[in-house]
Amino acid sequence: MNAFVKLPILSALLLIFVSPAFGDGVVIYNTIPNPLPPNVPSQPYQAVQAGEFGGLIQFAGGDSSYTLGSATVAMSDWALGSDYSVQFGTTITGATIASSGFYLPLTLDIYNVGADNTVGSLIDSDTIDAFIPWRPAPGGGTCTGTTYEGSNGGCYNGSLSTVTFDLTGVSVPDQVIYGIAFNTTDYGSSPTGVAGPYDSLNFGLSTTSPTVGSNPLLGTVYWETSSAHWYADGGTGGVGIFRQDQNWAPYTGAIQFTGNPASTPTPEPSSLLLLGTGLAGLAGVVFRKATPSGPVSNS
Fold it and tell me: Which residues contact 66 (CB under 8 A, 6 or more apart)?
């Protein structure tokens, strides 16, 4: 049969080639499950006197350096909107309360790997006003107590959502140490001194190997807590500092990074514009004969 190449198809191609997201690169590290489940095991902050949590990771691709595009983290919220309903539309110290969730400053720190895998110099620190949806109200199915029924029929106390950081243009080596940091009532770089939903916010954890990239130090995380007994070494390596800790297998932070190897240049905007213009010019003139050779699968 004869068929025109439709304008919407070429328009979609045009958007792909000229969209700013095109420069974000590909996934170079990932431990976030897909599809996203209702919840996963998670690391609290207020409850364990912590201010930052993360790990040492290896990006995929085999290059010695990368240009990042973004980082997405999975956060588990245990706070109920009904507990903060009288504060909807207001801002308390450390958070803005809305009917659908709350906003808080969330920081991603990226460090060089120092000698003997210690935390090296800071490469980049990005703080965003992150939106965290409230967890569902208790009940549903066979769930009792404070738990709610998730989309998979399981019962949960926390609800998983993701937050994305724009890291466009940040240059990093193939291995970095990252940390997710935020303030709670009593902990963090600037404790709020006021109880809020951030006290019930956790960093989601993965229990499987990365689907992209790798973890060079199995069973190891990096975190900061002011209580010695939470460290595997009982605090002998220091307390209240962001450092390495052992005996965490199989848990690692649920996070994804996108980017490009430094040896793969990002297309210049002018080149993208020329390509896009060429595609647009084809929209009304391309004519072809379409003869499918077999079944088409969308899986």
Answer: 28, 59, 171, 172, 173, 174, 259, 260, 261, 262
What type of residue is 229? Answer: H
Other CB atoms within 10 A of residue 188 CB: 21
Are the beta carbons of 229 and 49 closer than 8 angstroms? no
Question: What pLDDT sits at residue 265?
Answer: 58
Structure tokens at 24: 């974000």
Structural contact between residues 52 and 110, judged by C-beta atoms closer than 8 angstroms: no
In contact, 100 and 133? CB cutoff 8 Å: yes
Query: What is the pTM assigned to this prediction?
Result: 0.82
Summarised one tens digit per residue, pLDDT across range 217-274 is 999 999 999 999 999 999 999 999 999 999 999 999 999 999 999 877 555 555 444 4
Compute φ and ψ for 104, nearest 5 degrees.
-150, 155
User: What amino acid occupies position 253?
Assistant: G
Strand pairing report for 101-113 and 50-58: unpaired
Tell me the domain boundaries of the chain: 24-264
